[in-house]
Recover the amino acids of this structure.
C-alpha cells in the first residue's frame, strides 16, 4: 500500500509531463482496469471535456492513444489535443494530439482531422 506522500510525489511527476507524454503513461495504466462481468464491459479511459461559454452542456471526447508505430515509436506532434474524429467501430468521439491514434475503448485505429 502506498502512502499519501508516495501518491503526492507520483502526482507531481505526472503534472510535470506534457499532455502527449501524460497520455502515453495513462495508455499503459488505464487498460489494466477493464472489467468484463455479467455481460457488461467497464473500461477506465481518459476524457477531454469542453464547456463552451455561450452554449449549454458539455462536449466530451475520449482521448485516443497515438499510433506509435505510425510515428516511428514517437508520440506524434506536441500540440495538445487538437485532432478530433469518431471511432469507426464503437462510434465514440475521440481526440488526440496525433492524426493517427487508437480508440481507448475498443482499440480500433482512428484517422483524426
Amino acid at each position: 500500500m502506498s502512502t499519501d506522500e508516495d501518491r503526492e510525489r507520483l502526482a507531481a511527476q505526472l503534472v510535470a509531463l506534457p499532455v502527449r507524454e501524460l497520455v502515453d503513461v495513462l495508455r499503459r495504466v488505464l487498460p489494466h482496469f477493464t472489467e468484463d462481468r455479467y455481460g457488461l464491459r467497464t473500461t477506465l479511459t481518459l476524457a477531454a471535456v469542453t464547456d463552451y461559454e455561450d452554449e449549454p452542456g458539455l462536449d466530451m471526447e475520449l482521448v485516443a492513444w497515438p499510433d506509435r508505430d505510425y510515428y516511428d515509436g514517437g508520440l506524434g506532434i506536441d500540440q495538445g489535443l487538437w485532432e478530433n474524429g469518431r471511432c469507426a467501430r464503437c462510434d465514440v468521439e475521440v481526440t488526440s494530439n496525433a492524426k493517427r491514434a487508437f480508440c481507448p475503448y475498443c482499440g480500433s485505429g482512428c484517422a483524426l482531422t
